[in-house]
Each structure stands twice: as structure tokens, then as C-alpha cells.
Recover the amino acids of this structure.
């Protein structure tokens, strides 16, 4: 693979000067035009040591309007990063639509270094490359333009370059023992890199191998490639992909029976029994919360359910039992501007708790599969691919050891009606009911279909749905607490 | 996941009879309309034991015009199958465009059974699921409609069904010890199946979970789903995906230097030295061929190169040295109708040699990246995704232990001109030159660019390109033989 970037391609000083004005004007113009689009741009710069990654980045930052750009470097994990799933630190850096981010080091850095310098396992490496493909594909389908540059130097040229830097007093400090150690590992590094490049070189997130021996050729080629890709995309925005084939809910008799019809809503708890169980469970939960904090295990708790199903009350009972210092409750309403400018999962990744902490989501990423689907806020191709995206997201959490507990609070339409009416008459509850609640209620059957498919596709062995019968609030609250206590016990072993 | 298909959905006899006429008419009509499209249809039927997979298949074969359909069942490997890479047996069953194939068992069968019954390794399982996703995605991008049905029964219902079959004299023979053994493994089986389904449930090749307790509901739902998907696809054929972002060959000075410019075409071999080396190498090759046959190692040898670069002569020298009984030379010209009706790699998979045999491809799948690209026979999105498809294909060969050796015979434009002229004047060579050869010659620079990109993206550690300087035929032939001898020695250890 790399023989094709050891050709001695070069650009003379005159050629360089001649090409520059048009390139710079083009880049600024494209950057400006990009702001009107829904596309974030991610530029990844990788390559062998000594190939001039930082110099290239400096050059690009002079050619572009730096106010529209972000720059990220990734080394080993910081403490903050170690306390979350490995992908968290990349998610939070994702640029908004219409803007760009440059990555010096990225999600490729650690897997390759682990494989090369620490003799990492080949199948773990393959697994990580699969995750990368899925991550990049997800961003690309969401509109992102992803350009990955690999700067290449032959081993001989790498040695020459290190020697030259060492020979000059002004640059000697830049060459470390680590650089020489990596030079020794050149062949292994190149082999692992080849595998990574080959397996992640996709149409939507391609690699560009760049011959880096001649700095002018290197910089000009990277700049020109960015320009040509942006121009092509600005001229021909891709059509949305076809919706998934999966959403033909076959028009067959009997198909209107959903998982919600199987919930026994008649279950009740008397007042005395409720008070007793609530007290016991709250104490147990409080103790488990402390244990989890000390064991640095975190939890993510999701509440979904019909309007007026009792999410608020259940959450209050939970938070009363837990230590407020390690607890965060995220109320998910319409996304902010900042959130809308990114992939819909970004706003949920942001709040993933640190080790030992608990985040409760009052509504969640599942809005994508309920309100956004039913109301048409997301296109069929968009919500259609969310099943897999959400399953992957939850797998990341569970793989990191996070206890993930998902509740759906179910009530009957009659019970909802009674609660709506009560809200309208009881003064301190009146703020809880809006016209929108009444409108949602009319779409009950469409929501039932959506919920049935959601449970079928996202209730997995590692993150099952817990459907809670909610007609009796006391019964529901106790069942929520019991489920959570059991889940935390399992997590804590 | 499976809780959503334990709902007790059923269809009464009357409802069934009422729905049937429209369903059957619709299916026949869709099947007929499908023939005019470029879409092959693959229907996979899987599920737990006792869920009625064969009954369903019988039912579907009555509803459809059986002349347009193929039926495939997959059990354990046959001897013929074991002698080729694992995916070979699926490739050769792929239906032509406009027609359909039903799979009772498929590429999912062995991975799941290995995982469940033989305690297969989790990371091998994950790796296999990744291969499946790539395989299905490749077919879908090529136009295939892939529908995967999973028939579900609860453990209790499975037991009841097995007991019922056993209790009836007429059906007792159908229940085997193996069935009961699998019933015992129900929970493990369902868990592994859930993982497989979740990780391969994509928009382009979705899974449909079907509640199988009520046979009428099961059959009607599958039939109706097939109908609805076909109708949707016939009404809205998806637009071709956008071309890869990767093919912006940056317009930069120096970029016209290609890997071919680095080949030293002045290398020569004198007659006497040539005859001596040819004799030695032929003998060695013959011996290695026999060793490989006995060790059951096969080889795939690819010849590409400019017109008149000497492929034919080199191949003749090879085949003279090898045992004709274990050798097959495939001359790749324009595809046949049967080949055109399938994914372009199908015609190459067909000829993958059995263990111990050797296949020489005189031109190959790389036509996709040269003539089809340059002449526009393939769309940019089509040849653009071929790099990854070809790398995957070759990985399958190499993983199976096949020695894969790829040659590109390079000559200068002047040398080609001289050879063309010779062909025109020498009577017995006149058939070897056509107007097309002259036309191809005019596109030399476009081919150079394509070849450079081809080598950059498909010369991998496991399947490197060997670029052979061909201006001197003797030098080229000897170098081909030397390369091949070295490769066979490596393969035989």
C-alpha cells in the first residue's frame, strides 16, 4: 500500500507560490459556503513520526478562517476521560454543522499504539476497527464530511529527518527517546497502520495517503484535496438514503396487539404496604448508591412513558433516596441550538456520568423512536437507523460497566384522561397540562405501534426494557425501586 | 427483544381466507414486475426449532410462481464446500437480478450453532457477524433486496409443539434427539440469536421477528411483509448512493508521477541466462505444484497488465511447468449474461479452486478498477466501493490458506507501439490486435492514474502487487516465475 506514496512527488517553490492564491481563496470561499449547510467537517491528520503533522496543521490554520475551526489533539486519557466510556472524549468534540474540526490524533491513535507498542491482541484491534467504521458511518449518514489524511515517510527518510532535527540546536528538543523508540518499531507500526487504513477506508470516510517527504507537496495536496471534496459536496449534496426496508408493519389481522396489551394494569398496592415497601427500598437504594459510589460504578437510568404516567413522581422517590452530590437529573425537552447542530446522540453523550455517579434521564434518546417518528420530526431513514445506533450507544455504556436501567411507565388511555382532567382542575397541577398533551393523546395508536417496535428492537439482554404498570402510582413507584435495586445489586456483583 | 413476539397474535380461519386472494394476486404481480428490475431478492428463513420454517417455505412456494424462484438449504459443509473458503457456498447460490432465492438456513446457521452447541468463542462470533454485515451491505448496494425472517416460539410453546408432534404417529418421525437437545439449549440459543439479530439488523437487510405460535398469523405476516417491501421498492427504486469522497485526485503539480514511473524498464536478460533460469525455475515450480497438491494448498494467480505486455507468454511458461490436471486458466473477457445478472465478484468466486488446485486468472476482478472505471462501464459509486470489496474478497482467500499472487506486467508506451505494429505485420499474430487495442492506448494517462490508485489501495501485506518490468519478455517471465516460486515456498512453509 505505502509503495504508492514513495514516488518522490514534489512541488517546487515556484509551483507552490503559483498555486497558493487560488487554493487559499477557494478554501475560504468553501468554508464560508459550508456554514449554510448541515454538514460538519472532520479532518483527521495521522501518519508516521516526523512526517510533519503539526507543520501541516499550522499551515492549514493559516489558510482557513480560524474562527470557524476547532483543533483537537488526543494523547493518553486524562482522569476525566478515564471515568467515562472510551468514546466519550470523541463525542464531546464533534463540531457543529457548518463548521469544521481538525484532529491531530483521534480514535485511531490508541488502538494503533496499543497494538504496536503494547502488543495488543489482534482480535481486540479488529473489534475496535469495527467500532470505528460504525462511528464514522453514523456521522456520515448524519451529514458529516470526514477526511482522513495519512502522512507517509519511508523508514530511511524518517531516520534522516530525526537526525536532521537532532543536528540542529534550534530543533534538537523536538526529538525524544520515544521518537527513536517508535522509529525502531517502524515496520510494526506501518503494518498495523495498513490494517487500520484498509479496514476503515470507506466511501463516506476515506483515507488519503499523502507522500510527506516534500513539505510543499504534502501541504498543497492536503489543502487541494480538502478544497476539491468540499466543492464537490457543496455542488452535489447527497440525497437522503432510502428508508430502511424494515418498517413495513405488515397489514395483517391481529397485528394491532402490542406488547402494551400484555401489561396487567390492574395491579395495585395498598397504602400501608406501599409506605412500608417504599421505606425499605429507599434505604436499600441509598446504601447501594453509596456502595456504587465507592466502587466507582456509575448508573444511567432512563424514564420513558405516556404523558401523565407518573415519571416525575417516580423520579422524585428515587432522588430522595440517593445522595444528591452524585446524582444528576436531565430533563429532556426540545433540543437547544447547540444540540440541534449535532448528531442527536451528542446531547446524551454529554451527560454520561463519571465513575460512581448516577444520571437519570427524564425522557431520553428514545424520543427519536417515539415523538420524532410519530410527529415526523425525523425522516424515516433517520429514525430507521436509530435502532442500531441506540443499541451501539447502550453497548458502549454497558461495556464500560455502567448499570443501564430503562423504564417505560404504561397507563391506560382512561387513566390518562382522568389524570389530565385532574391536572386541569387542581390549581398546583395546572401547569403540567398543555394543549400538546391533548394532541399527543389523539395519536395513541401510532405511539403504540412505535413503542412495540422500539421494545422489539432495543430490549436487549444487556439493556432490557422494564415496562411498569402505572395505573396505580404506588405500585409503579415500588416496582421502579425494586427493579433498580435488583439492577444495582447485579452490577455490584 | 423476543418479548415483543410473545403477544398471542393470531389470525382466524375466516380472516385468513379473506386476506388470501389479495395477497396471492399481489405477490404474483410483484414477482412479475420484479423481473424487469435489476434487483435480486433474498429471503432468509430462520428461527427456533419447531417454529414451522419448512411449513412456511411450502406455503410461500404455493403462493409464488415457483419457476422464478430458487430454494437453498444449508446444513453442515459438504466435502466440496470444505475445500473452498467458507463463503464460497453462499456466493455460488446468489440469485440473478429480477429473481428470488429462499434460504432455509444461511450464513447465520453455522456461526450461531457453533456458538451455542460447541461453545464457540465470543470474539470469533463477533468477527463473523462483521463479515455478514459487510456481505449483506455489498449485495444491497448492488441492488439486492434482502429480507430476513426470524420465527419465534417461547420455550414452553416449543416443548408443547415437540410433544404434540411426538404424540401423533404420523409425525413422530419428525422429532429427533437433536431436537430435544436443542430444546434444552433454548436459552443459550435465544441469547446468541439475539446478539446475531441485533448486530445484523440493518436498514438494507433488516430482520423481521415473527410470532410463530399461530401458523396462519405467521404465514400471512411473512407473505404480507414480502409483498409490502417489494411494492415499496418497485414504486421507489433507491437512487444510487453518492460516489466515494476518496477519488478527488488532487490537482497538484507533481501528482502525475505514478508508481509505474518507478519501475526500471531497462532490465534485461540474455538468451543463455534466460534459458538456464527458465529451466531451473520451471523444475522448481513443478515440484512445488506437486507439494502444494499433496498438502492440499491451493493458489490463485492474477495477471493484469497493458495490452501486449506479455501476459499470454508468461502464463504459457507457468502452465507448462504445472500439472494440467490441477490447473485452470480463466480468461476474463466481457461477462456473460449469467454473470452480468449478478454482483461482479460472483464470476470470480465461481472459479475459486478446490484444495490443492491452482487457478490462473488472465485478467481478473481488477477490471473493475481499470477498464470499467476508465471506460465508464461502472459508475463512480460502484467502482469506488470495489477497493474495500476486493480487499475483503482477497482476505477470504488468504484466510483460507490460499496462496494469492498478483502480477501487473508493465511496458512503456513505445514498447507497446512496437509490439502492436509487429502484430499487424506478422500473420499468425494478426488476430491478437484489434481496433479496441488502439483505442485503449489513447487512454494511457487515465489508466496510469487508475492503476496508481489501484495499487495504493489494494496492495496489502497479505496480497501485495508485483509490478513486473515487461519491456524485456525474458526478464519478465523469469521474474514472474521467481515471484511465484517464492510465494509458494512461503505458503508451504
Amino acid at each position: 500500500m505505502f509503495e504508492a506514496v514513495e514516488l518522490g512527488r514534489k512541488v517546487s517553490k515556484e509551483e507552490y507560490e503559483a498555486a497558493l492564491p487560488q487554493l487559499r481563496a477557494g478554501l475560504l470561499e468553501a468554508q464560508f459556503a459550508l456554514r449554510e449547510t448541515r454538514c460538519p467537517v472532520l479532518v483527521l491528520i495521522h501518519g508516521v513520526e516526523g512526517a510533519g503533522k503539526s507543520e501541516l496543521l499550522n499551515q492549514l490554520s493559516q489558510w482557513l478562517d480560524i474562527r470557524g475551526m476547532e483543533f483537537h489533539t488526543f494523547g493518553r486519557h486524562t482522569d476525566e476521560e478515564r471515568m467515562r466510556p472510551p468514546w466519550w472524549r470523541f463525542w464531546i468534540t464533534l463540531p457543529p454543522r457548518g463548521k469544521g474540526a481538525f484532529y491531530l490524533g483521534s480514535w485511531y491513535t490508541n488502538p494503533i499504539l496499543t497494538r504496536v507498542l503494547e502488543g495488543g491482541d489482534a482480535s481486540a484491534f479488529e473489534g475496535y476497527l469495527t467500532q470505528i467504521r460504525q462511528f464514522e458511518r453514523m456521522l456520515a449518514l448524519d451529514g458529516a464530511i470526514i477526511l482522513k489524511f495519512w502522512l507517509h515517510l519511508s523508514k530511511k527518510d524518517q531516520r534522516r529527518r530525526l537526525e536532521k532535527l537532532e543536528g540542529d540546536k534550534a530543533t534538537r528538543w523536538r526529538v525524544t527517546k520515544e521518537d527513536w523508540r517508535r522509529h525502531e518499531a517502524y515496520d510494526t507500526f506501518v503494518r498495523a497502520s495498513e490494517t487500520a487504513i484498509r479496514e476503515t477506508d470507506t466511501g463516506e470516510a476515506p483515507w488519503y495517503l499523502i507522500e510527506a517527504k516534500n513539505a510543499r507537496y504534502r501541504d498543497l495536496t492536503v489543502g487541494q484535496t480538502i478544497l476539491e471534496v468540499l466543492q464537490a459536496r457543496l455542488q452535489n449534496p447527497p440525497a437522503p438514503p432510502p428508508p430502511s426496508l424494515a418498517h413495513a408493519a405488515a397489514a395483517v389481522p391481529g397485528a394491532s396487539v402490542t406488547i402494551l396489551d400484555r401489561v396487567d394494569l390492574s395491579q395495585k398496592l395498598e397504602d400501608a404496604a406501599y409506605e412500608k415497601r417504599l421505606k425499605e427500598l429507599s434505604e436499600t437504594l441509598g446504601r447501594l448508591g453509596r456502595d456504587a459510589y465507592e466502587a466507582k460504578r456509575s448508573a444511567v437510568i432512563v424514564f420513558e412513558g405516556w404523558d401523565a404516567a407518573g415519571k416525575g413522581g417516580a423520579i422524585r422517590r428515587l432522588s430522595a433516596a440517593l445522595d444528591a452530590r452524585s446524582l444528576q437529573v436531565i430533563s429532556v425537552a426540545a433540543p437547544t441550538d447547540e444540540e440541534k447542530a449535532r448528531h442527536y446522540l451528542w446531547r446524551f453523550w454529554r451527560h454520561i456520568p463519571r465513575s460512581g455517579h448516577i444520571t437519570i434521564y427524564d425522557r431520553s434518546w428514545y424520543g427519536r423512536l417515539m415523538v420524532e417518528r410519530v410527529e415526523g420530526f425525523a425522516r424515516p431513514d433517520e429514525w430507521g437507523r436509530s435502532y442500531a445506533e441506540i443499541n451501539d450507544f447502550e453497548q458502549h455504556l454497558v461495556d464500560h460497566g455502567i448499570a443501564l436501567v430503562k423504564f417505560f411507565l404504561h397507563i391506560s388511555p382512561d387513566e390518562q384522561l382522568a389524570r389530565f382532567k385532574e391536572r386541569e382542575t387542581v390549581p398546583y397541577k395546572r401547569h403540567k397540562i398543555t394543549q400538546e398533551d391533548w394532541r399527543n393523546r389523539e395519536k395513541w395508536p401510532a405511539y403504540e405501534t412505535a413503542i412495540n417496535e422500539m421494545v422489539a428492537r432495543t430490549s436487549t439482554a444487556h439493556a432490557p426494557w422494564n415496562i411498569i404498570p402505572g395505573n396505580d402510582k404506588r405500585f409503579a413507584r415500588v416496582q421502579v425501586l425494586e427493579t433498580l435495586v435488583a439492577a444495582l445489586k447485579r452490577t455490584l456483583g
Remarks:
- Chain B touches chain A through 79 residues (CB under 8 Å).
- The beta strands of chain B are 41-47, 69-73, 100-104, 145-152, 207-211, 299-305, 327-331, 358-362, 403-410, 465-469.
- Residues 2-235 of chain B form a domain with the Rossmann fold fold (CATH 3.40.50.300).
- Residues 60 and 99 of chain B are 15 Å apart (CA to CA).
